[in-house]
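[step 3/7] fold_predict: job queued, chain A
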Amino acid sequence: MGNMSISSYSDENFRKISKPDFTFPVDPEKVRLTKGIEYGEDKELGSLNGSNPFVRYRPEQLYFECLFDTTTVMEDNDESIPVHDMVDTLEERFYDYNKDMHRPAYVRAIYGNIVFMGQLQSLETQYTLFDLKGNPIRAELKVTLTGYRSKEMENKLFSKRSPDVSRLVTLKAGQTLAALCYEIYGDPLLVGQVARINNLNGYRNIPAGTKILMPMLRKS
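[step 4/7] structure written:
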């Protein structure tokens, strides 16, 4: 068994700790880190396996399973922590509602060389054994965390105006798609490709407020 530590934060930039580290054993065979990429769909008529431009990285996911079990603890050991209290301690880190934030806390999980910043997606707790008084003495937990990165953290990783990063832009009043292509790519002639990727009938007279996917494109 390996140890994982989880702490919670009361701000999206992971600066203000609301709950300190809670360390507990996890099954190394039940730790899973998932990464994914989202691509735009090229719907050009007659196209087979089109360009499918890069849109964004999907949020990473960290899945793990842990077991809280006091059946091996001696009865005269006053330092043992009840199973229900251990479950509560973990839930305090990522499930309980924070009144100041108006949402659950953000979470940092550390396991080996994995440092995961995110928030809770799902938690399943199964109590599988009880003592004679009905108190749980064994609990199996399955946890899925989904990655989170604030706008400030995103901007540190990706330049807003880099043509190497796809993003969703809301068209402003008086702004044309050609002008937007010039601002981002330095080439207004890419307007046709952008219109096609966004399934627009044309690139003129697009209403303000329309969300436009600006994919990674290069000058021809």
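[step 5/7] annotate
Residues 35 and 42 are 23 Å apart (CA to CA).
The chain has a mean pLDDT of 84.
exit 0
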